[in-house]
Design brief:
The chain is mostly helical. It contains eight helices and no strands. It has one domain. The longest helix is centred in the first third of the chain and has 49 residues.
Length: 209
């Protein structure tokens, strides 16, 4: 196994814009780093565990997962769009009716409904899993490496949100930021949906229209 290539792949996937990072940056702006930390840890830990489970079970469940691919994509897209709507409605910290951070368990759940995480887990298993390696050993190794690599990457986005918040001291600036991040998250959700859907899904839909 090319360990360096695996770490580089995880760094690229962890630090580039995606649903996790957009949500953490927005949370950092609206709630600060301390209140964002539970979601941050939940996302990092959940990501590592999810990659380990995919590694362990991919061989026996690949046909089952492929059959559910469309439903996973639809559920994930719907969840991301719901988060985008809540992000657009976020107000100033402490404001009555303002949204709350998604929390630790929300961070874990976020991964299971995030199409990007499923794609990353599949890619890691298919590309980096040595043919002769024990699946349990690989699952533990991939989980630990994913957690250790993704945590600082996504923490940069949460911290960046805290830094940006200093320039969003006017309500209209904060509202514009939240709406922009919500729009980016919604567009990301739709792009990931198109990536996850089977190739013939759009053709079948157009034929029905």
């Amino acid at each position: 196994m090319n360990f360096l290539a695996l770490v580089m792949y995880l760094v690229v996937m962890g630090i580039t814009p995606g649903p996790n990072n957009l949500v953490l940056a927005s949370s950092g702006v609206n709630f600060g780093f301390t209140r964002t930390l539970p979601a941050l840890m939940g996302m990092a830990l959940g990501l590592g565990v999810q990659v380990g489970i995919i590694t362990l079970l991919l061989g026996s469940l690949v046909a089952w997962i492929a059959a559910l691919q469309t439903w996973l994509a639809l559920a994930g897209c719907a969840y991301l769009l719901w988060l985008a709507w809540g992000m657009a409605q976020a107000g100033r910290p402490g404001e009555r009716g303002a949204a709350n951070p998604i929390g630790f368990f929300g961070g874990i759940l976020f991964n299971w409904l995030n199409p990007k995480v499923w794609l990353m887990g599949f890619n890691i298993t298919m590309v980096f899993l040595p043919s002769g390696m024990n699946p349990w050993h690989a699952a533990v190794l991939f989980s630990l490496v994913t957690f250790a690599t993704s945590l600082p990457c996504i923490a940069l986005w949460a911290g960046g949100g805290v830094v940006i918040s200093r320039f969003l001291n006017k309500p209209w600036r904060l509202k514009a930021f939240n709406c922009t991040m919500a729009a980016m998250l919604a567009m990301t959700a739709m792009w990931l949906l198109l990536q996850m859907l089977p190739a013939n899904s759009l053709d079948a839909f157009q034929a029905m229209a």
